[in-house]
Please model this.
Amino acid sequence: MTDHPTPAEVAGPKRLFIKTYGCQMNVYDSERMADVLRPLGYAPTDTADDADFVILNTCHIREKAAEKVYSELGKIRELRELRIARGGDRMTIAVAGCVAQAEGEEIMLRQPAVDLVVGPQAYHQLPELLARTARARGERIGADFAPNAKFDAMPTGRGGSGVTAFLTVQEGCDKFCTFCVVPYTRGAEWSRPVAAVLEEARSLADRGVREITLLGQNVNAYDGEGADGKRSTLARLAYALGEIPGIDRIRYTTSHPNDMGDDLIAAHGDLDALMPYLHLPVQAGSDRILRLMNRKHGRAKYFEVIDRLRAARPDLALAGDLIVGFPGETDKDFEDTMDLVRRVNYAACFSFMYSPRPGTPAATMAGQVPSEVMKARIQTLQALLTEQHIAFNETQAGRVLPVLFEKPGRFAGQAVGRSPYLQSVHVEGAAHLIGQIVPVHIVSGQQKSLTGRLLSERVAA
Model:
């Protein structure tokens, strides 16, 4: 006897609402959860109000993000109670993702309205967990570390639409930065086999995807098994993906400076499909703080990698991550970070105030920085980063860039696309070009986007 629902049990339309927090990999995971549940009759809905199944796909990187999940669970519980009071069917509530992995038992105790908890390596078990929950027996928590089992159980095809897509190729991290929970919530580094990645990429190309972003907690540590039984690097994988008809653009995130190998740096100069925009987090500009963070690299290593990348691809634009107020950070340490930012000149950068995560070494370190000091520093840093970001966008004015049009704009006839540097580009009279890569004259650059006009309707090669 199987625990999976029978066709009779899933007869009739069911509505699925997934709210996604955090990183691009969570976006990918949400898409794949929808794929797993589609054969059971679940179709997506844009609101929790009318959903039969609500999933919160969570992020555990920052404390406030986790608290937002509990706040949202309270609202969803009220929706369910109101629905039952009106005579409707019972709504099933699930928590997935990294908070589920780290706090599974606590979630069930703190919010009893939650029906099931699913860690990031176990969402292929959703049909079974859902069936067991519906029958009020069996396990309600699935939180293991077996990514190979997860991917083996995924449907081959992908649902959804659009001309861009995320594709997870690597999960987990072995770096153990002292501020980070990823090794505890996602497990050790593991890479999907090359054949599985290529199969999924071909499926995406068949449905009209032109650009793929390869995802991994430490994506440039990718070492999936190739057809010859040998381990492949991310560079070799990128070249293979570039051979797939229809896949014209390739990006990857997130990287570690220590895993930026010679062949990957060379690929940035040799592989046309590899976009000239790289997210390469550094986290701090002080060698002392980098040691406390256990980053295993210093300023000199970071600058060396960037110099080699820019030598291979002179038009490369860099993005990064920075943490302000790490335990023990002094004014001198912060000035070192400001100096690094000035020298790198980021096109875009994410910056955060340090947030202690339970169970990480940094959470109990001496020298926790007062919040008012962190706030002053983050404002100073973000002012510089905003200045650099606006300046980068403004330098695009007058250039002709190939733009991949993704969706209609806010105004009639307008379309929004992406430049090679991941900037949003708004163009009038381009709505009929969605899905195509077209040369666009950039008229102006603003903080959040570029404005362009069509040179012609000829599709760029």
